[in-house]
Amino acid sequence: MKMRVCMAGLLVTIVAMAVLLAGSPNAAAKAQQPVAATAEVKIDNFSFGPGTVTVAVGTTVVWTNRDDIPHTVVSTEGVFKSKVLDTDEKFSYTFTKAGTFPYFCSIHPKMTGKVVVQ
Amino acid sequence: MAGKTKDELLYDHNNDGIDRRGFLKCMAWAGTGAFCIMQGGVLKSYSLSQMSQMGGKAPAGELSFAQISDSHMGFNKAANPDVVGTMKAAIDKINGLSTKPEFLLHTGDISHLSKPEEFDTVDQILKSAVAKDVFFVPGEHDMLNDDGKQYLERYGKGSKGAGWYSFDKKGVHFIGLVNVLNLKAGGLGTLGPEQLEWMENDVKHLKSSTPVVVFAHIPLWTVYPDWGWGTEDSAQALAYLKKFGSVTVLNGHIHQTMQKVEGNVTFHTAASTAFPQPQPGKADSPGPMKVPAEQLKSVLGITDVNYVRGQHALAVVDSTLA
Question: How far is Cα B98 from Cα A110, in angstroms, rounded to an integer?
Fold first, then answer.
């Protein structure tokens, strides 16, 4: 009897894992977030959009410059700093710690944004 | 002193009836390469070649130079796909001025992305200028990726700190300032305490009759703070210049001509040789402004500056490329 419950339990687990791995939309509601989560920030018209982005620890934020003028992404606390991004160039940073990370464009310092990591 | 004329005399530094505001208005009427004088209460303009032919003593120690700005070498978007061509046209224009400038001032954003080949191209184009000496100050586009190391190597010989310096030409004192480094989030241009201290000492012993020309990339007066068009600590710099009877401030950065007179100080911004930008508040952002191709040259330009010894005001005249 115990053996059967054990086996059944094991079977359920295997099946559940198989379902998860298959990426089925019916996966358990408590499914974990994808390992490589990303969030997008578009740079356009001298602004970061969205101005504030809230992400989970471990998320990679990708900034893409859609403006016709170069910009940079520079953390005010020195946590991250991009090279200059011309039109269509990208910069990514993976946030491994929780916190609030204000940043700005060092070429046009009136452009500011914030990443909130929870 | 004459009685009140239609243009009220507010700044009569020379005690010769020349009102600085009226002077600037005359400049606008007179067009390129003109000099304005108030005689018998009437503003008259003369071309500089006329002046040297006028009866009486020829003015000694004439100084003539030209300002170009914001060449953004490397920019290739819709607002101007040929910044090489328009910069060449600007140099041709300068070479064709009736009074040849002795040297050029470039008020920054020489390159667009601080790339070596962009600086090389500008140097190449400048070789065709009749004026062989060019004095630079950097724009924020010249300090990318390396905090200005490359700019200093190329253009900063003899300068201090991030590239500030001064020199004299025919009794006029020139001060090149750097206000595009260490910009703070949400902030404006900045000079910083080290540069301000240097400047205070640099002008301390000059006679107050010395005409002073200050040139820097970002405007040294607050043109439009929402777009970062100003310098947060310029008031300190201007305080050091209070004693001088004639101060001319030449800036770039905003890609349009603008003038302001405040006491003894005339502020002037130059057009870009690359692309125009919108007037303050007239667009969502201060980015490159597209105009019909046939109008482009009429919104790009150069600035011609002439100084005649004994006159307080420097004659600052803008010309467009078309």
Answer: 42
